[in-house]
């Protein structure tokens, strides 16, 4: 995993890493699991957005991350939960069709949003946010290796990256941070 510009160590009381450069939330311009156009900024407007790039056939980090976020959402107060949007962007669009992606995400939480598109478009979007991504490779045994960054990107209401949650972030860290993130006002003057 690679994190671009992980910040200066001052995490504003959050468990996640606050990056020095708080990049803007992209539109993404991909498609949702029903094949409809998906604009990340529009669909998550006014919400704290947790975004993760991964794939449904992942043996470890992807399902664990989605399960941990789901578990945290069941533990926070309903008013906090309603202010959170979780978006999963597939890094393996050839195998992660809309129905496959939808079915996989629903096992974690029915509110999670799955999006897909061409691999090149997804890689461009991921790398613009500092998430490395390599073309899926078929291995000698027939399995497919998809190498991707494993950070969850948290966007604030002002559509800027607020924090990065690295692989292995525990459920309690999300439980602690989600109320803090939803309590923040929009805009840089709020911090």
TrEMBL record:
<keyword id="KW-1015">Disulfide bond</keyword>
<keyword id="KW-0186">Copper</keyword>
<feature type="binding site">
    <location>
        <position position="62"/>
    </location>
    <ligand>
        <name>Cu cation</name>
    </ligand>
</feature>
<comment type="similarity">
    <text>Belongs to the SCO1/2 family.</text>
</comment>
<feature type="binding site">
    <location>
        <position position="148"/>
    </location>
    <ligand>
        <name>Cu cation</name>
    </ligand>
</feature>
<feature type="binding site">
    <location>
        <position position="58"/>
    </location>
    <ligand>
        <name>Cu cation</name>
    </ligand>
</feature>
<dbReference type="InterPro" id="IPR036249">
    <property type="entry name" value="Thioredoxin-like_sf"/>
</dbReference>
<dbReference type="GO" id="GO:0046872">
    <property type="term" value="F:metal ion binding"/>
</dbReference>
<dbReference type="Pfam" id="PF02630">
    <property type="entry name" value="SCO1-SenC"/>
</dbReference>
<feature type="domain" description="Thioredoxin">
    <location>
        <begin position="19"/>
        <end position="191"/>
    </location>
</feature>
<dbReference type="InterPro" id="IPR003782">
    <property type="entry name" value="SCO1/SenC"/>
</dbReference>
<keyword id="KW-0479">Metal-binding</keyword>
<feature type="region of interest" description="Disordered">
    <location>
        <begin position="1"/>
        <end position="21"/>
    </location>
</feature>
<feature type="disulfide bond" description="Redox-active">
    <location>
        <begin position="58"/>
        <end position="62"/>
    </location>
</feature>
<dbReference type="InterPro" id="IPR013766">
    <property type="entry name" value="Thioredoxin_domain"/>
</dbReference>
<protein>
    <submittedName>
        <fullName>SCO family protein</fullName>
    </submittedName>
</protein>
């Amino acid at each position: 995993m690679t994190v671009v510009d992980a910040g200066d160590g001052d995490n504003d009381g959050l468990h996640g890493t606050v990056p020095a450069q708080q990049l803007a939330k992209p539109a993404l311009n991909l498609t949702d699991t029903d094949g409809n156009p998906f604009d990340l900024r529009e669909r998550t407007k006014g919400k704290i957005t947790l975004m993760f790039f991964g794939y449904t056939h992942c043996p470890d980090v992807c399902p664990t991350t989605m399960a941990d976020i789901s578990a945290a959402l069941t533990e926070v107060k309903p008013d906090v939960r309603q202010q959170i949007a979780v978006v999963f962007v597939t890094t393996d669009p050839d195998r992660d069709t809309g129905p496959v992606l939808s079915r996989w995400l629903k096992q974690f939480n029915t509110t999670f949003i799955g999006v897909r598109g061409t691999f090149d478009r997804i890689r461009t979007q991921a790398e613009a946010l500092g998430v490395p991504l390599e073309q899926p490779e078929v291995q000698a045994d027939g399995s497919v290796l998809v190498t991707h960054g494993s950070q969850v990107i948290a966007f604030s209401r002002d559509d800027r990256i607020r924090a990065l949650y690295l692989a292995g972030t525990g459920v309690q860290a999300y439980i602690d941070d989600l109320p803090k993130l939803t309590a923040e006002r929009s805009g840089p003057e709020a911090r």
